[in-house]
Write a structure and sequence with these properties.
This protein folds into two domains: about 120 residues, Jelly Rolls; about 50 residues. The protein contains eight helices and eight strands; from the N terminus they run H-H-E-E-E-E-E-E-H-E-E-H-H-H-H-H. The chain is globular and about 55 Å long. The protein is about 50% helix and about 20% strand. The longest helix has 26 residues. By secondary structure, it is of the alpha+beta class. It has a four-stranded antiparallel β-sheet.
């Protein structure tokens, strides 16, 4: 795993040395997640965070009527996990599902506790993950409350330029909080402007 995307992240962002990185990475588990499979289901208690080496995951809930509400899409070089469940020990209210074949590195809670003691910069990695998660959720709330559907689509294209073609239209519409028909109309309008 020394050539993994996570290793590159640790070298660049956390600035750990190669000897410690090798020691750190040897204790982690690589997991292949088939398209459509779940890394977390509603009702399970989350005890780990995932770093995505390759692939695409969605983070979502399902309401009482069976409708999906997608909070986030997460692709390569990013972390995903249900922090609420990890921090409280309560069952997850969300699902994390692979939208395509995905390879993740599993980072259990014990990983952070054990290695933060040995390398203070890993505390920085944990803070970065928390920061990114909170910022994303705050931006998501503002977007849903104040942006028009067209603005949400444009923001999505800026925020996720490399994955828009990898997401089924129905899921993208769900994420944007619009119908698939509205999404088709918005896409046509954007194509005309280009």
């Amino acid at each position: 795993m020394e050539n993994s995307r996570l290793a590159q992240f640790l070298f660049k962002e956390v600035k750990i040395d190669s000897k410690f990185a090798a020691q750190l990475l040897n204790n982690l588990k690589l997991m292949a997640v088939p398209k459509g499979a779940f890394v977390l289901k509603m009702g399970e208690i989350a005890n780990c965070v995932y770093f995505i080496e390759s692939g695409l995951l969605r983070y979502y809930s399902v309401d009482n009527s069976g409708k999906d509400h997608i909070l986030q899409f997460v692709a390569e070089n990013n972390f995903i996990g249900n922090l609420e469940s990890i921090l409280t020990g309560d069952p997850s209210r969300f699902y994390i599902q692979a939208l395509e074949k995905t390879i993740v590195i599993v980072l259990e809670e014990s990983f952070f506790l054990q290695f933060i003691k040995r390398h203070p910069n890993l505390s920085l990695m944990n803070k970065m993950f928390l920061r990114d998660y909170v910022v994303h959720l705050q931006n998501r709330v503002i977007e849903l409350l104040s942006f028009s559907a067209e603005q949400r689509y444009e923001d999505f294209m800026k925020q996720y330029p490399g994955i828009i073609t990898r997401i089924p239209q129905l899921m993208l519409a769900s994420y944007l909080g619009i119908t698939p028909e509205s999404l088709s109309r918005i896409r046509r309008e954007f194509q005309r402007k280009m």
